[in-house]
Amino acid sequence: MNWAIAGDTQLARYFEQENVWSKSWDPVDGEHATVIDHRNEELALPIWECTFKGKRKRFAAEEYSNSVWIFALPES
Fold first, then answer.
1. How many CB atoms lie within 10 A of CB 4?
2. Do the domain assignments include residue 40?
3. Fewer Cβ atoms within 10 A, N terminus or C terminus of the chain?
4. How many structural domains are present in the chain?
């Protein structure tokens, strides 16, 4: 599966306008999403699952710096 770093608009649409921070994040053990950041560096972000409007969805996320998070979504 291919992954891409996502911005706020993409995340809001994917998370169906629900607050991801209010959800229980379930780790997908042993799986990581590989993405290239703005500095052209490869990152391996852990993959999580949450339920949004009754649908289980996967996303990748990790705290990159002090309260700065990187999110990635599966490419369709």
1. 15
2. no
3. C
4. 1
